[in-house]
Amino acid sequence: MKKSKDTRRYSTSILSRLLVPMLFVFVLQAAVMMAMFLSSDILKKSGDNAYGVLSEKVLNRKMLIENEMSNRWTRITDLHEKVLKVIRAELSRNNIELYQLADNHDLQNSILDTLLPQLINTIRRNYVTGVFLVIDAPSPIAKKDEFFYPGLYVRNEDPSSYSLSNEDLVISKGPSEVVQNHNIALGVDWSPFFTISPNSRDIFYKYFNAPIAAALEYPNEPAKNLAFWNTLFRPDTLSDEVITYSIPIKDEKGKIYGVLGIDLSARYIQSFLDFDELDIYKKGMYCIAFHDVDKNAGTFLPIVFNSIASNLNAGHIPAFEVEQTDYKNVYTIDKGSIFTERYCLAIEPFHLYQRNGMYENQEWVLIGLAPEASVLSFSVTLKKIFWQSVLVSGFLFLAGSYLSSKHISNMFTKVVLKLQNSDPKKMLSIEKMNITEIDTLLVAIEKLSASVFNAASRVSTIIEKLQVPIGVFEHNILMGTVFCNSIWFKLFNIQKYSGDSVLNTDEFYKLLDHYEYYINTKDDTKTIYAIPTGEHGKVRWIRFMQTKENDKILGIALDITKEVEDRKKLELQMNYDELTGLYNRAAFDRKITEVFKQKHLGICALVMWDLDNLKYLNDSFGHAYGDTHLMAFGKKLAMLQQERCLVCRRSGDEFYSFFYTFSTSDEIKLILTAFWKDIQETPITLPNGETSKLRVSAGLAWYPYDADNQADLVRYADFAMYDVKHSFKGSLHEFNLDVYKKNYIMIHGTEALNQMLDRNLIEYALQPIVTSGTGDIYGYEMLMRSSAPEFKSPEDILRLAKAQSKLHKLEELTFFGAMDTFVKKIERGEISKDTKIFLNTISSQVLSDAKFFEFEEKFKPYLSNIVLEITESEPLNTNFYDLKNERIRNWNAMVAIDDFGSGYSNESSLLFLSPNLVKIDMSIVRDVHKSLDKQNVLENLVSYAKKRDIIILAEGVETIDEIDVLLRFGVDLFQGYFFAKPSFDITPIPEERIQELNRVFSLY
């Protein structure tokens, strides 16, 4: 019914039909003018010329600053050689290493006293605001991760000034004894040492850490190729902000002695950024900025800023993104939080780092900014003149077109008013307008009206004779009338019309709008109404459909009451349990699934009920009484059914009730407590006359405390009910996750364990063990995996086997099965004959002599390959260990302590067992690079083991940082996900992993 309104909304008037072609002509004329103007390329050429001027200014300024950088500021190579010569000479003369210099303050002062004049000469010659020297001989301090480094830091606020007595210089860092020898003042931020965190990535320490890191990564590169430019920072709380240029002090062999560098204050750099040249209105700005070429090519972080706003600095401006223009090296940035208007930017990069170097992605640039309105002022004026001419001519053209079209439109409006005011119940008769074209149209409309009226009457007569409850209407859009048959009015209970009638459009749609309240469902093809019939509780269901054909809309209303009632009966049978009237299992699952789709579930609880002794009642009094018992409990449960509770009969004597969207669990507990009390007080009369009580057991699981999804919630409630049936029958127990984890496999896994052991459903995955020096395969650990789906981990198998006294059988299967898998891999050529096999043995179990003999006869060629791992899952049985140890020695095999540092594997077992190999538990290995405590434990263990020729293996290795620390302490073997996960197939370790291992190993 809305389609007719939409059609009328998008119809066009005669005025529009006349104006649109004229408007099209105007648009075409304007487009030709614009095309000619734009194709002349005037705007582009003027814009390119303006961009070129801006770009050339910035390029010249960049070349000036870059010349200062290369020819003055960074000329410290000669100073590097002098510093290196002095330090090496003093270390050689005193026969000490560089790290020993940390404790020798006299020697430090001697070196610094010798080098201070050289630093003063450099700060004068290079016209910089500071020169610093840091010697890599740190001394620890109380603060974590920070150290004192000896060195000198000479500052000069005004490089253009000069004083023979050095009165313009201050010492910011350096020993007071050295400073006093040269009569130089101490700065207000003076300290005798540099305070540096060598492992920090903080910008405050990069002037030292970055060159050191570069020298370590590229030991053969000259020092000047490892230079680092640090962005703006404040060396001390009272210092000015500076940028620094620093290089590592290193010899030709790559040995590092410290860092040497210069600083440039932000105020000094601003003196080179003459922003007046960019804009005649002094709105131009210069900015030295930084950006990462790899990550954010279009994002720039300001470092030094200079503009007419003297108090504006880089700290006031966040990182910003730019947009490329058609002109090379010229960009734009929109107005916003940074600028009040749109700006043009010319960007020229500084060549600070060599290609393929460590910092090639860090690019510094000079950015010249000027308001776009100033840069493109000529282009803007040109465009303004053009648009003014287009608008004035357009207004004159459109005004004339509108007046002429309006006159023609008024004539047709008179005809439309006469049609709208005609009587829709009669055939049309319209007064002529004495205009040939309009009068011809009116005659055609009158003929069409007569034919429609006669055809509609015939259709209505046919439908009534067929006695089919179908109501129809036909809306003639051109005439503005709607024909309805009599059945249409009967279906919608419209008493005003009794027979076929013709209504005007507004009256018809007003009637339909009145019935929008009774719409049940609606989609693109149909609308379903539920209209009261006048009888109590009864409604008439009507399916309404309509379609448009040319200038007509046809609609059908069909009575589908019987169809709807039959479908509801079928749904009732499908969704409800016949015996109790509660939801059945399928309907309950659908309902609870819909609930779990809600965003805010609140607190929920699922209770599984089980009637006690139903089988006894069925056997004693018959199933008919058992059904009566079920109906009685179902009636009780139905009392819980409410807006926030679903109840169903699951099957047999089992029921569900699901509470949802409660604020607290206490609300649900109060309901259950009252319900439980009611059950306990409900008497049941047995057929033999005796009185009993309604007895049930129930298990309860909570959402989201126990489970966060539907499947787990159902499973946990089921387990809670099962647990109470086997422990405290006739009560309600809540789910306990610890009991579930502990007892689920114990309850359900006994048969699965027997099947697994009887049928030997055990496979063995192999995880490689890698040699630290070469990356070669040292051996494989054989890890038990069950092919029975009930067992998710070896721990479940061991726990259940211990409870069932089957550990001895498991020990036997492990020895023979793991060794058999290993030998087959050797015979197929997948692994080398010399590869070690790591077998896990249970400390409290040992094979019989007969089984040992059988094992030795079957695997005699490979007995020396065995590394027997004494596991920590059981306390050590010393008698059993002696028997195993005797066999191992006879086989010329090895003994290993597994999981050292956890469980029963500790220092006492290390002393008692005297193993050939110790496996460090992954609890120590994990994040060992982050924990000094773990490193201390590791250091003590390695020190003890190395003295006794015990091999150290680190298991559970996952990162190269862990390997770095482990190699530093002398670990021999590695095992973990970094190299490979346990697998049934032998696959090569990724080459890149071996290369990483060898790279780190080469550092030690």
UniProtKB/TrEMBL annotation:
Which Pfam families would you find in this protein's record?
Answer: EAL (PF00563), GGDEF (PF00990)
One MF annotation (Gene Ontology) recorded for this entry: cyclic-guanylate-specific phosphodiesterase activity
Q: Where is the EAL domain?
A: 746-996
The UniProt entry, under CDD domains, shows: EAL, GGDEF, PDC1_HK_sensor
Domain of life, per lineage = Bacteria
Question: By its UniProt entry, which InterPro entries does this protein fall under?
Answer: Cyclic-di-GMP_PDE-like, EAL_dom, EAL_sf, GGDEF_dom, Nucleotide_cyclase, Rev_trsase/Diguanyl_cyclase
Which regions span the lipid bilayer? 20-38
Ranges of residues in domain GGDEF: 602-737
Swiss-Prot/TrEMBL keywords: Membrane, Transmembrane, Transmembrane helix
- Write down the Gene3D superfamilies for this protein, in alphabetical order: 3.30.70.270, EAL domain (3.20.20.450)
Q: What's the protein called, per UniProt?
A: Diguanylate cyclase (GGDEF) domain-containing protein
State the organism named in the record.
Answer: Treponema denticola H-22
